[in-house]
Structures are given as C-alpha cells and as structure tokens.
Design brief:
411 residues, 48% helix, binds adenosine-5'-triphosphate, binds magnesium ion
C-alpha cells in the first residue's frame, strides 16, 4: 500500500484477484500472493474486531487529514457510515470554529515534530451528522510508515458527563447562595442582638452596685448571679458566632513567624486558673519553629485548644496540659495534650462541627464553636487538625502548619 493513498488491505486483495484473473502471473508468485493475502486478511480482521468492539470512536488519518480508518464506534458517535467518510477530510468532524486551529496545529507538528496534544487526552468539541456539536474527550497518537506520518484519535462522547457536571455545578452554586444568605442573616441577627445583650450586662452591674448598698438579700443575690452568668454566656456566644462568620470573609495577613514565641506569649497571657492546672510547654527539637500564616488566627487556635483542655479537665489527681511542637518535613505539628475527661470515640469526628458539644458536659459552658473555628483556620492555612483520645484518659489535639509559603499544598 502506498503511504500517500488511502488504499485498504481489502483493496489490495481485490487487485491481486484481478491480476490472477488476467492470467499474467505464474504459479509460484500466485502461491506467494495467496499467503500474503491470508496473512493480510487475518491481520486486518484481528485489528478490526478489536477496534469495532470499542464503544469509543477510533479514527485514523493521513498527514493530509484524509480519513483512512473508521470503526463501528465512530459510526455510532458521528452518525456516518464508513463509506461516507473514507478518504474525506477529518475536518468535517470538527465545528468550523476549530478547523483553523487544527490546521495550524497540524502544520506546526509536521514542521517541528514537537507534539502539543499528541500523547495526551484533551477535551474539545466535535461535529456529528446534521452539524450537531457535542463535547468529546480526544486522545491522539501518531505513527509513521514509509516516512509518512499518520494520526489515530480515540474519541469519547462526553455529553452525558458534561451534563451531569453542569447539574452538579448548578446545585453547588445554589447551595452556596443559600449558605451565603443564611450566613448574612445569622450575622445580622447576632450583630443586632449584641447591643441589647451588652446593655443588659451593663444594667445588671449597675443594679448590683445599687443593691450592694442595701441589706444583703441572699435570694436577690442568687438571682443576680444567675442573670450575670446567663448574660455572659450569651455575650460570649454572640462574639464566637460573629467571629466564626467573619473568618470566611476577612483577608488574612500572612507572614513567616516563630510559633514558639507565639506560644510563650499565649502562655504568659493565660489566666491564673491555667497555671494552677500545671501547664507545661515543651518545644522539643523544633526551635525556632517558623511557620507561615496569620499570626492572630494561629493565636486563636492555640487559645481555643488550651482553653478546651482546661475546661474539660475534670478532677484528675495531677492535672497536666502539655504543649509541644515538632518539625515534620515541610510542616510544623503542634500538640496540645491533657489528662482530662477525654472524648468518647463516637463523638471524635463530630467535635469539629459547628455547635457540636459532647452530651452530658455536666455544666461546662461553651457554644460548641471553638473547634470549628480551629478547623477552619488550620485548613485555610493548608494544614490539618485531628484528635486522639480515650474517654477518661485525656485528649490530644494535633494541628499542622506549613513552614513556608512554598510548603503549602505539599501535605
Ligand atoms: N480537651 C478536650 N477534652 C475533652 N473534651 C473536649 C476537649 N476539647 C473539646 N472537647 C469536646 O468537644 C466539644 C466541642 O469543643 P468546642 O471547642 O468546639 O466547643 P466548646 O468548648 O464547648 O465551646 P466554645 O469553644 O465555643 O466556647 C466540647 O463541647 C467538648 O465536649
Ligand atoms: Mg472550646
């Protein structure tokens, strides 16, 4: 078969048959022809059976764009029979807007030999019978025979996949819009509630001072105590809520800073109660522990984890909170370990959810927002946060942060 034309093995076999009929060939050559004929037919049939069992289209072309092979899948996808397309330009299967770029790409490849999409799978558009445009996935290969270059493309119709993708994207966008609306609403409510709540706190303090000058009434004092505690809880809750919502919107101030120094700062600012609990800081082998991120946000993470350890300590004989820092490749991992009440296994995944608190917290106050804020901050820094705990034996929280901007995403 001449590499320049589009003759198939079938055509060659027919030519041999014609020569035979004309009686111009001798017995020996005739025998040779028969063997060649059998070998070629066998080879073509074998290739055809594989190609036709494909649901994808397999199309081969010459370097001049002429179609020389067309399988069953191609007929199904493009709606043309083999005889309608053989020898025609493959550009008939492309929307007009892509033909120029195809010609340019082909010319460039033939001149330079440098492939751009060959050997890869790309998404593009195709044209079926009736000028119906549809999305495809195209894997293109090239092969050489007698110095001529040929191309074979495997084409998959991805219309269904694209449709499903679009539905998913629309649903996601819809869900995001709803969440945004809801968050704005919560933010407005929390914001509007803040002023009256703070006012109630102020009025309470005023009332207390006024009553202090009168004869002490234990009953009144008791009511006041409850009111004070409830108003403080409400105030803290609103502050946490606003904080959690603000997190998603603020632009972070990122820098490389020493985590061990921040830890000392947090430690120095901790209240009396924490020092009583016997907190220890162990910087291990990681000093100075540089990390990349928003210093104030990381401070919030540390404060939340340490406050939790204090709050959920229970009554062990020797309460200990241990904070340690370890370098771990491109990341720095901080551990906050306590020997408090611990977290039952079945709740360990949920404690990072907004508003989740382990049931039966026995009067321990909180809004269940702290750990969700921690998770959000750590993940927005490209890090991870996780917990290990056994009920009654304490809890260990771990969080990792990237050392530098370039470590981001190497987790
Ligand atoms: N160190 C810990 N030991 C035992 N349980 C813990 C510990 N840290 C968190 N938990 C459990 O996880 C829950 C969620 O913690 P989270 O910090 O989100 O909320 P909170 O401390 O209850 O309230 P907030 O932090 O918003 O004031 C807690 O209510 C508690 O049940
Ligand atoms: Mg907390």
């Amino acid at each position: 078969m001449s590499p320049k034309d589009t003759t198939t093995i079938c055509d060659l076999v027919n030519e041999i048959a014609l020569l035979r009929k004309s009686g111009k060939i001798n017995a020996q050559i005739d025998d040779l022809f028969s063997r060649v004929e059998r070998a070629l037919t066998y080879s073509e049939n074998r290739f055809r059976s594989v190609a036709d069992s494909e649901v994808d289209a397999i199309i081969s072309t010459t370097s001049g764009d002429k179609i020389i092979f067309w399988n069953h899948g191609a007929s199904k996808i493009f709606g043309y029979e083999e005889k309608e397309v053989m020898g025609k330009s493959v550009t008939m299967l492309m929307p007009p807007s892509l033909r120029k770029a195809h010609k340019k790409g082909l010319k460039r490849f033939l001149e330079t030999g440098v492939p751009k999409i060959i050997g890869k799978t790309v998404e593009t558009q195709a044209w079926a019978r009736g000028k119906r445009e549809f999305p495809i996935e195209l894997s293109l290969a090239t092969w050489k025979s007698h110095d001529e270059i040929f191309f074979t493309g495997i084409i998959r119709d991805i219309s269904e996949r694209k449709k499903a993708q679009k539905v998913l994207e629309d649903l996601n966008a819809q869900a995001k819009r709803r969440t945004d609306e809801l968050e704005t609403l919560i933010q407005m409510v929390a914001h509007d509630l803040k002023v009256p709540v703070v006012t109630i706190g102020g009025l309470l303090r005023l009332l207390e001072r006024k009553l202090a000058s009168q004869t002490a009434q234990p009953e009144v004092e008791n009511i006041l105590q409850h009111l004070r505690s409830a108003s403080k809880t409400l105030e803290n809750f609103l502050a946490d809520l606003l904080d959690a919502l603000a997190l998603e919107k603020t632009q972070n101030a990122w820098e490389t800073f020493a985590l061990d120094e921040l830890l000392k700062e947090v430690f120095d600012n901790l209240g009396e109660e924490i020092h009583v609990k016997g907190i220890q800081i162990d910087l291990g082998d990681c000093t100075p522990a540089k990390v990349y991120g928003d210093r104030n946000r990381i401070r919030q993470v540390l404060e939340n984890l340490i406050t939790n350890a204090v709050k959920h300590m229970g009554e062990p004989d020797h309460p200990v909170i241990q904070v340690s820092v370890h370098c771990d490749g491109d990341y720095v991992t901080t551990t906050v370990k306590d020997n408090g009440i611990g977290i039952p296994k079945e709740y360990q995944e949920r404690i990072f959810d907004r508003f989740f608190r382990v049931p039966k917290a026995n009067g321990i106050k909180g809004s269940g927002l702290g750990l969700s804020i921690v998770k959000q901050i750590v993940e927005s820094h490209g890090g991870r946060v996780w917990v290990q705990s056994e009920e009654g034996k304490g809890a260990t929280f771990f969080f990792s942060l990237p050392k530098t901007a370039s470590s981001l995403g190497t987790h």
